[in-house]
Amino acid sequence: MWEYTDKVKEYFLEPKNVGSIDDANAVGEVGSLACGDALKLFLKIEDGVITDAKFQTFGCASAIASSSALTELLKGKTIDEAQKITNKDIADFLGGLPKEKMHCSVMGQEALEAAIKNYYGEKVEKVELEGELVCHCFGVTDELIRRAIRENDLKTVEDVTNFTKAGGGCGDCVPRIQELLDEVRGQAHTEAPAEKKPLTNIQRMQLVMQVIDEEIRPSLRKDKGDIELVDITGTVVQVALRGACTNCPASQLTLTDFVQKTLRELVDPDIVVKEVSA
Ligand code: FES
């Protein structure tokens, strides 16, 4: 799976500032449970200084560690100083995040922006819905993608997916993400995407088995987990998680963010992974 720094592990296993602030005067909420990550940030601001910061989050280890790191970064800062905090600052505070998990630090930055807008009385329904909605699967707008490209020097659609999640679902938004990359980086995308021949059922099954054996299972085994391929019908792949994965609270994320994502990248973008209890 992913390599986490000691600081990420520390902030995940013993997160600081978990909870809410009853008399918070700045609250920012981003993400959604449907996307797998959600963060609510509570700030107490007195005389322009953030005197307390707490969070509630739903998400993976990186989301919890990033949220906790953000609250530590915020305490004692003026609003002006807080507004300068970027997702990169959050990741740097943690000694880095796996590139596939950088979107967790972006979520922290968005929650902070939403909280500051809330403090100034600006209406923030959903910060991620400002601008043109590019990725319907994860509710990501063009504004958010442009900023992620600029601030993190992103070069590929995969980079954008790692930082914002956009493009990590059905893939319909990938051409628009490429346009935004071209626009922000000021370069025309000249290469036509390679035409791929559709896989036959037999080819798809063989590739799925190969990728599970060579890519997915070895990663899961590093964390004492395992996976069993139960059945393949068209693009639907049925699997059963084994070992440490069986009772892991993050098993659903493992299935979507790792197993399904890997199979989509390496076999077929239409693959849907379903867990069965066989
Ligand atoms: S619309 Fe972006 S991944 Fe589905």
Automatic annotation (TrEMBL):
InterPro entries: BFD-like_2Fe2S-bd_dom, BFD-like_2Fe2S-bd_dom_sf, FSCA_dom_sf, N_fixation_NifU, NIF_FeS_clus_asmbl_NifU, NIF_FeS_clus_asmbl_NifU_C, NIF_FeS_clus_asmbl_NifU_N
Amino acids binding Fe cation: 35, 60, 104
Annotated NIF system FeS cluster assembly NifU N-terminal domain residues: 3-123
Cofactor: [2Fe-2S] cluster; Fe cation
Descriptive protein name: Nitrogen fixation protein NifU
Cofactor binding note: Binds 1 Fe cation per subunit. Binds 1 [2Fe-2S] cluster per subunit.
Residues that bind [2Fe-2S] cluster: 135, 137, 170, 173
Coiled coil: none
NIF system FeS cluster assembly NifU C-terminal domain segment(s): 208-273
Source organism (scientific name): Desulfobaculum xiamenense
Similarity annotation: Belongs to the NifU family.
Domain named BFD-like [2Fe-2S]-binding: residues: 133-183
PANTHER family cross-referenced by the UniProt entry: IRON-SULFUR CLUSTER ASSEMBLY ENZYME NIFU HOMOLOG
Any matching Pfam family: Fer2_BFD
Molecular-function GO terms, alphabetical: 2 iron, 2 sulfur cluster binding; iron ion binding
Job of this protein: May be involved in the formation or repair of [Fe-S] clusters present in iron-sulfur proteins.
GO BP annotation list: iron-sulfur cluster assembly
Keyword annotations: 2Fe-2S, Iron, Iron-sulfur, Metal-binding, Nitrogen fixation
Domain of life: Bacteria
